[in-house]
Amino acid sequence: MMMLKMFMPSMPKMPESEKKEETAESREEAKEQERLKAAEAKRIEKERTEKYNKLKEDAKGERAKMREKYKLAESPEPSDAEEESSDEEEDGFGPKKEVNDDPVAQAKALADKAMSDPLGAATQTLDKVKFW
Predict the structure, then answer these.
(1) How far is it, in rounded angstroms, from Cα 75 to Cα 83?
(2) Cα(63)–Cα(75) distance, rounded to whole angstroms?
């Protein structure tokens, strides 16, 4: 009997799941719950933005007090272009290198060089290859 069980193990029984038929009421309830969750998330986001806008205004007031106290000139508002460029800046050091990522332009330049000086183009590509 033991040998027979080794060759033919019994299949585990799956629990019988009760098939729920979704009614129109349950679908409506699910939609209502989803709508309520979205409204709650929107309310929380609005409260958060109001809180941080208030903090920004308070900080501006504090800076204005310090400027008056120490008789400092007000700094100009950054323009949109300056704000965008500051977002795009990386933390790298030194000037940015021009990166030409257009593969069509690179291939065209390589083909033009190969047509004008075939030996020079071949040696340039061989310089990139490392044997050891």
Answers:
(1) 15
(2) 10
Rounded Cα distance between 123 and 129, Å, is 10
| DSSP string of 70-111, one letter each residue | HTPPPPPPPPHHHHHHHHH--S--SPPPP----HHHHHHHHH
pTM of the model: 0.39
pLDDT digits (tens, 9 = 90+) for 109-125: 878 888 888 777 667 76
Residues 6 or more apart whose CB falls under 8 angstroms from that of 120 comprise 113
Q: Is the pLDDT of residue 51 over 90?
A: yes
Hey, how many other C-beta atoms are within 10 angstroms of the C-beta on 63?
Answer: 13
| Among candidate residues 103, 123, 101, 121, the one with its CA nearest the CA of residue 113 | 121
Both tokens assigned to 43: 């309310």
| Res. 38: pLDDT tops 90 | yes
Both tokens of residue 33? 């719950």
Residues 6+ apart with CB under 8 A from 121: 110, 113, 114
In angstroms, rounded to a whole number, what is the distance separating the alpha carbons of residues 9 and 11? 6
